[in-house]
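Journal club side-thread
Mid-discussion, someone asked how the predicted structure for our own chain would compare to the paper's figures. Pasting it here so we can look after the session.
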Amino acid sequence: MGSKKLEVRQKVEADAEQGQEIAETGEQKIEEAETSEQALSSIEAVDDDTAAAVEEARSESDAIAKGVAESEIEEPGEQVSESFKETREESTEYSEQELENADTATEMTGDYGDVGSELSSQFQESGQEFQEIADEADQENDEMKSKLDQEVAELEGVF
C-alpha cells in the first residue's frame, strides 16, 4: 500500500477511534444520568416545599443532561463526522485521479502498449483502493452518527 493510501486509511482509523471514545463518554454520561434519575425517583417528599425542590432538581438535571448531550456527544461527533467527510472527499479525488491516469496509460501504443497496459492496471487497482477507503469512511461515519444520535436521544430523555 502506498504512502498516500496509508495516510488516508490512518485518518479513517483515527476518526473511528475518536468516534468510539465519544460514544464511550456518552455511555458513561447516560449511566450517570440514569443513576441520578433513580435517586430522584426514589425520594418521597413529605411536604410541598420538598416536593417542589425535587421537581426543581429534576428540571435542573434535565437541563444538565441536555447540555452534556450537546457539548460532549453532539458537538464532538459533528467534528469527527466532518473529518470523515473530508477524508472521503480526499480519497475520492485520489481515486478519480488514479482512474484518469489509468485511461491515459492505455494511450501508450505499439511497442509501449504492454507497458501502458500494465501501468493502467496498476492505476485502476490504486483507484479502486482509494474508493474502498472512501466507502469505509462513509460507513464508519454513518455508524458513528447513528450511535451518537441514539445516545443523545437516550441522555436527553432520562429525566
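Post-session note: The mean pLDDT is 96.
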